[in-house]
Design brief:
The structure is a homodimer of 393-residue chains. The first copy, chain A, contains eleven helices and 17 strands. With 393 residues, the first copy, chain A, is of the alpha/beta class. Chain A folds into two domains: 84 residues, Roll (Urease, subunit C, domain 1), CATH 2.30.40.10; 291 residues, TIM Barrel. In chain A, strands 1, 2, 3, 4, 5, 14, 15, 16 and 17 form a nine-stranded mixed β-sheet that branches. The first copy, chain A, has an eight-stranded parallel β-sheet with strand order 6-7-8-9-10-11-12-13. In chain A, strand 9, helix 5 and strand 10 form a beta-alpha-beta unit. The longest helix of chain A is centred in the C-terminal third of the chain and has 18 residues. The relative contact order of chain A is 0.17. At the A-B interface, helix 9, helix 10 and helix 11 of A face helix 9, helix 10 and helix 11 of B.
Chain lengths: 393, 393
């Protein structure tokens, strides 16, 4: 059934009304013979958008991983690459478990980075592509071919990236051009050449802080402009935008806005983060993601983008109701715009991707993040009372 | 019933065993005629300790408060003082709601700061004292007489503080001697004079950052030593210990350790925080708290100290299992030691204040913080399956 009447529902915590869905879209006229769902005055928000995660590497459903990994980024990357097989981590099964958990929390769209390296080849891409196909119609999954272990430092990786993009990966990924790759020119030239060859957008992990990150970000902006890729480049994490020197950061904000680069924040608690109110004031599209969850990097995360809206709020010291609405906007409309989702929202004509949440206000819905009453994807029920309608493997 | 057999339980995630409780204490010998609780191999931890909160001012159970408050500390303090009555905030009812929520999550001990000011007089102290009495035997509540609005800037407050301590408040509170009081000597002399007069410990809110906070902290340390109050002084928040200049901070750590001052962190996401691994390495007793929850300051918080252990972990970038154990230790034993709780822990002879939690490991128990299966206070059941055995008003 993709026709439905949502009775006594409050879109974005506004006044109670009835909404009509026909063939998966919100429509004006009362549909004939459609079933009615009594929403009990609950708030309706558009589908939550997980705009930065790693579907191929969560350990959900596997025995607890005792983390004794070293403190550096490279410790985590090396450890993960080497223990994946011993842990029995199958990207197909793990990505399905992860995506179904996200769906149970009201997620309707995911952008996932997926490791491509010479150790595991394209196993990750193949696994997540299988999940994408299996869950088609219930959740939309974008795949970023992601050179987690580096391209410059591991010959053969760029060729695998090229193959991943030919196979069906949607975006070209990248990672710390200086800190990981030790060759910013080589790395970024390769990333953008792949993007140009395949006509696909770019999404680069940038953990580099302060001036190192500013340098790499400037190199990314310059290539975006040179290739006419305005609106097609996202920078994930962007810790360098959380630097103390706000005057320098403002200069970057102005360029990001002018050339329409996007920022995806994971709002980590222990690293500097982009200031979402400043990004908003500059008109920079901003989305959010849970990043990797329950993996060899760390034990945290549950793939709940409503809880992540809370984390965005807490990390950015948002307290007022209008500020809380911004946190939610980032986890819904912001991510959707960056993922270029068509017909997104609760307006007439939009695809009925939406979530019924608990609370008197949007702020209360965020801070309580109670189990979602109902989740619809194109008008089809995908989760009820916090549980996905399909079971994880 | 305060005699009980806890069957198939894993203390601190160790091997499964049976534990015996008689007259509210853990004992060696199998009690005759005691009821048996099958713990299903779950983990047992000692009671969670909420070591920094504000029981008198949560808005739990009241209509949603639309926050439009300004960005400064003084905006929040002034707004709160002025809207409390209009909002219908009754400290007795609110503190009972708040404490019962904490109990539902496995909290067995609370230290609460309670506002004392010339606007509301001792209404807060009286309200929380009534709740303390009503919940006696189910949860232990320490009351800090807290001059939230300042003593130097609001004449008459010091006299009310004196009265609060005579009435039964357990500790003398204080707040930003420079930033709020504009008179560090006057403020701290008053705080320590009250402590000396009443023979009670001290717990001071210190939000001041960097060098300002270092100055105030040094003044606190010096008075602690001068009055021989080693072991009796806690500093809450202590954002200045999260400063970038670690060499200077190390000098303070060494003094805090030598003179046995304690640190209570609320692990806020958007302010600098004391580095708990460094505090631990110096042997400084560290506890944690949720701070105010769902109040006029902000919408966040649910009084769950197991979730707060996760926040402590995330804010301090703890990822390894041994590091996660430290986060839990802070929310249990650390807080208990600072609150000077006698017979705390899971050993023979200890008071049976304990919580049955879900997970294969302590780290998993923290990151999932699933509803608590069972909570005992001196061997009596206070919560089951996430719900307190008594209802909130």
């Amino acid at each position: 059934m993709t026709s439905m009447i949502l009775k006594n529902v409050r879109p974005m915590a506004g006044p109670a009304t009835d909404l009509y869905i026909v063939d998966g879209n919100f429509v004006v006229d009362l549909p004939q013979g459609a079933g009615t769902v009594d929403c009990g005055g609950r708030i309706l928000i558009p589908g939550l958008v997980e705009a930065h995660t790693h579907l191929d590497k969560s350990l959900l459903g596997l025995p607890w991983y005792h983390n004794e990994v070293g403190p550096r980024l490279i410790d985590k990357i090396t450890n993960e690459r080497e223990v994946k097989i011993a842990l029995g981590l199958d990207p197909k099964i793990q990505s399905e478990r992860h995506a179904i958990l996200a769906m149970s929390h009201g997620c309707t769209h995911i952008r996932s980075h997926v490791d491509v390296d010479t150790h595991h080849g394209l196993a990750g891409i193949e696994g997540v592509m299988a999940t994408r196909e299996k869950l088609a119609g219930m959740i939309d999954i974008q795949i970023v071919a992601f050179p987690q272990s580096g391209m410059m430092t591991r010959p053969g990786t760029a060729e695998l990236m090229d193959e991943a993009l030919s196979m069906g990966a949607d975006l070209v990924g990248g990672i710390d051009p200086c800190g990981m790759e030790h060759d910013p020119k080589g790395h970024l030239d390769t990333v953008f050449a792949l993007a140009e060859k395949h006509g696909k957008p770019v999404d680069i992990h940038l953990h580099e802080r302060d001036a190192l990150g500013w340098f790499s970000m400037q190199e990314i902006i310059d290539r975006t402009v040179a290739l006419g890729m305005q609106g097609k480049v996202s920078i994930s994490h962007a810790f360098c935008l959380g630097a103390v020197d706000r005057a320098y950061v403002t200069g970057l904000h102005e360029q990001l806005a002018e050339h329409r680069l996007h920022i995806l924040t994971t709002a980590p608690a222990s690293a500097p983060v982009p200031a979402v109110k400043e990004l908003h004031a500059h008109g920079i599209l901003t989305g959010a993601g849970c990043d990797g969850i329950r993996d060899t990097w760390g034990p945290y995360g549950n793939s709940d983008m409503l809880e992540k809206a809370m984390a965005v709020g807490m990390r950015n010291n948002l307290r007022r109701d209008d500020e809380m609405a911004l946190a939610l906007d980032i986890c819904t409309r912001g991510g959707a715009a960056i993922l270029e989702v068509a017909d997104y929202g609760l307006d007439i004509g939009c695809r009925a991707d939406c979530v019924l949440v608990e609370g008197e206000t949007l702020a209360e819905a965020i801070v309580t993040h109670a189990p979602r009453k109902l989740v619809l994807k194109a008008g089809k029920v995908t989760a009820r009372d916090g549980s996905c309608v399909i079971e994880a493997p």
